Amino acid sequence: xxxxxxxxxxxxxxxxxxxxxxxxxxxxxxxxxxxxxxxxxxxxxxxxxxxxxxxxxxxxxxxxxxxxxxxxxxxxxxxxxxxxxxxxxxxxxxxxxxxxxxxxxxxxxxxxxxxxxxx
Length: 119
Fold this sequence. Notes:
By secondary structure, the protein is of the alpha+beta class. It has 3 helices and 5 strands. The protein has one domain (about 10-110): 2-Layer Sandwich (HIT family, subunit A), CATH 3.30.428. It has helices at about 10-15, 55-60, 65-80, and strands at about 25, 30-35, 40-50, 85-90, 105-110. It has a 5-stranded antiparallel beta sheet with strand order 1-2-3-5-4, with helices on one face.
């Protein structure tokens, strides 16, 4: 259910500290941590502390929290010094788009060139 912690959710367990992660930023509403399988020199996940299954649900039910995620993504890029050279923010929504953890999250990717279109 949206907004409530899920006992079987990997990211909810990171929020509670039950699963360790390399935290790079934390606010009242978000946690940002390094991806365990980085796809770029900077690859940080920014998640809401409360559970929403995907970006669409997050945007529909908590648009202010969605804005917090985007703000924190920019702060991560600035801290990793990729904001001047360019970075990508990716929300995978649905299994067909590559979502594997059903807790809304933004990937902040930077530190190398990216092609367009992605995929």
